[in-house]
Amino acid sequence: MLVEEASPRPSPAATDDPQERLPRLPELPTVLAALADPGRLAIVRALARQGEECCNRVGELAGLTIGKSTLSHHIKVLRESGVISTRAQGTHRYVSLRRAELDQAFPQLLDAVLGAQGGAHRAPAGA
């Protein structure tokens, strides 16, 4: 039996194009799971309002009173789910919402999530 070897993929550090280092957009359930947490949703809303921001400030902008490790965990979940991207500049890391990619993959999803009021269930109009 012949076994084909997979062609080697260049490591993320080997590529010069920062767009190639962005994670691929995952399946819809992964994105929804990342957005389901109130803290992560607050971070996404803050980034949608503010644009790119330093990791150290994003929790404050989101109105979160959480520790650095918890904030770091939320940013990691959002990054790994493909909702945000991170770029390094010197000793700082900046995060931004991957709005264009998310809108292309899941049209109207961010508009619906960002426009929804926090947690209150509303009956549909005319019901």
UniProtKB/TrEMBL annotation:
Residues 22-117 form the HTH arsR-type domain. Keywords: DNA-binding, Transcription, Transcription regulation. One of its GO terms (molecular function) is DNA-binding transcription factor activity. SUPFAM superfamilies: Winged helix' DNA-binding domain. InterPro entries: ArsR-like_HTH (IPR011991), HTH_ArsR_DNA-bd_dom (IPR001845), HTH_MetalResp_TranReg (IPR051081), WH-like_DNA-bd_sf (IPR036388), WH_DNA-bd_sf (IPR036390). It comes from the Bacteria. Residues 1-24 are annotated as: Disordered. PANTHER family: TRANSCRIPTIONAL REGULATOR, ARSR FAMILY, TRANSCRIPTIONAL REGULATORY PROTEIN. This is Helix-turn-helix transcriptional regulator. The lineage of its organism: Bacteria, Bacillati, Actinomycetota, Actinomycetes, Catenulisporales.
